[in-house]
UniProtKB/TrEMBL annotation, chains A, B:
Residues 1-35 are annotated as: Disordered. It comes from Streptomyces galbus. The keyword Transcription regulation applies. Residues 7-21 have a biased composition (Low complexity). GO terms for molecular function: DNA binding; DNA-binding transcription factor activity. Residues 51-191 form the HTH marR-type domain. This is MarR family transcriptional regulator. Keywords: DNA-binding, Transcription, Transcription regulation.
Length: 202, 202
DNA sequence: AGCAGGTGTTTTACCCGTGAAATTACTGCG
DNA sequence: CGCAGTAATTTCACGGGTAAAACACCTGCT
């Protein structure tokens, strides 16, 4: 969540940069690469016409990641809104549920990739709704502990299967094998990005 | 950009749902799947411990797409901010540059996946900065036409190569072949999502 | 011609997230 | 003990996005 709103609402990616592979890749042999009938392909084509000298390769990847994320999130939000939760709120509740224990605001911020200020606000709202409770730490009075109420736990447990089913349906656009390949490639990229990310901040 | 802020700022994905493949997929043979040392893997593991009966497969894909998008966008924003532009502004300018001709606010909204209201605001700001100009349509006085100024065009052309180089560096975490595979898989998913997306709005 | 209905754009009101400052509290050291 | 330094959390001011309402204008029908 902390990341530039990949998630939240409107979402991002749109007309981003995208490049075609470094020569390798996607072609399936048949006329159109089979996967190339997406918005990003069109955008890349336009850039190539205007700037034929540029290597548009990265756009193909990054543009698609962004756009997929946007669409997937949009889809995912539907079931949540029906339960009256925003994605950010669900993420917070989910963090509490999956860790199985109380978390401090700071931990929640790290866990949900959002700012401390955002956590403060969300916790306040969720407390008012009776989904979450807070208590001060007895030793260190600076810190607070947030935990799910019974209602909160029930809400998460009720939504989660629905959410997963919905995601499964959306992903069915890709067969099982491809989903696995995709998860693998993304995981590889992700683990390296998360590793030496700070090193690239020019 | 219109999509639910995959992009923008704080970014989203965080503690999202993610599933492990449907049996196929990522394993490389060696102990840890090689790609499984990312944040998402940990989150999925937690969910599985708490809800062993649920199929966490979709999380593996969707969670990673979201998280990758968040990190990539965060990285991409760096070069833009140095030029004093937000990603949304750059997308708008980029749409004008790559299409090569004037666009109406409505077209800009569609092209950048954002709301009309957002376009109105951005165009106003960019006009004040002298990067863009607007003129009313002579036939239909409801519509406006927005075009790049010379300064705007120069700015985009100056930033783009830098942006692409930066993206290329970030993606170098994956070798060329894998980038191609990834682009292919994402393109396939994306084209189907974009196709029958509206059909899933329960 | 005149108006009902539709379309393109802007305005309005509001929500939500952020960074920086403020607040409160702990800790180690002289 | 008392204070400088640091840490956890909240408050503040603001930017940017959205949906819905308001506008302005066109078009087709009678």
């Amino acid at each position: 969540m902390t990341a530039p709103q990949v998630a939240r609402a409107g979402s991002t990616a749109g007309a981003d940069t995208a490049r075609t592979g470094t020569g390798t890749g996607a072609g399936e042999g048949t006329g159109t690469p089979a996967a190339a009938r997406d918005t990003v392909a069109g955008v890349v084509r336009q850039w190539r016409e205007v700037h034929p000298e540029l290597d548009t390769g990265p756009m193909e990847v990054i543009g698609r990641v962004n756009r997929c994320a946007a669409l997937l999130q949009q889809a995912e939000d539907a079931p949540l809104r029906r339960a009256g939760l925003s994605r950010a709120e669900f993420d917070l509740l989910g963090a509490l549920r999956r860790t199985g224990h109380e978390l401090t605001p700071g931990e929640l911020a790290r866990e949900t990739f959002s700012s401390g200020a955002a956590v403060t606000k969300r916790v306040k709202q969720l407390t008012e709704r009776g989904l979450v409770e807070r208590r001060g730490d007895t030793r260190d009075r600076r810190v607070a502990h947030v935990r799910l109420t019974e209602a909160g736990r029930a809400l998460v447990d009720g939504i989660l299967p629905e959410q997963l089913a919905y995601e499964k349906a959306v992903l069915s656009a890709l067969d099982g094998d491809r989903q696995g390949e995709l998860a693998g490639l993304l995981g590889e990229l992700l683990s390296r990005l998360e590793g030496h990310m700070q090193g690239l901040r020019r």
